[in-house]
Amino acid sequence: MIILDYKDTRPIYEQICEKFKTLILKGVLVPDEQMPSVRNLAVELSINPNTIQRAYAELERENFIYTVKGRGNFVSDTQKLLEEKKKICMQNLLAQVEEAMEYGITREEILSVLNHEFEIERKDI
Question: By C-alpha distance, which of 81, 77, 76, 52 is closest to 65?
């Protein structure tokens, strides 16, 4: 589920956070699903349990997971987080389109690239 990149300059706990955020936002991990235990995930990844605990604390701080005392960590309902992420993504996309148009890229060229990307995505499904 989680694969660490030891060549990545980011701390391991940040990599773990990013992987879980992606899994949660893509719906692979669903709301109220139990997260792997700190101990089991630490053994699976061959890292210190404190690193997992730090990642889980960060995920909880950002409302991706919640803790039930004595039972473990569970995935939060992230619909609001997903909507916010989509909003930011659309703002970034619009900024990129505006920049492209400033450099003389036409509407047709932009649409052609987008259509091509969506065709590739459909083939991958």
Answer: 76
pLDDT tens digit sequence for 46-83: 999 999 999 999 999 999 999 999 999 999 998 888 89
pLDDT of residue 122: 63
CA distance 96 to 48: 41
Query: What is the value of pTM for the model shown?
Result: 0.72
Question: Long-range contacts of range 48-52, CB-CB < 8 Å, 24 or more positions apart?
Answer: 51/12, 51/13, 51/16, 52/13, 52/16
DSSP assignment of 48-105, as one string? -HHHHHHHHHHHHHTTSEEEETTTEEEE---HHHHHHHHHHHHHHHHHHHHHHHHTT-
The structure tokens listed for 73 are 């960590």
Torsion of the alpha carbons at 52, 67, 87 and 111, rounded to the nearest 10: 50
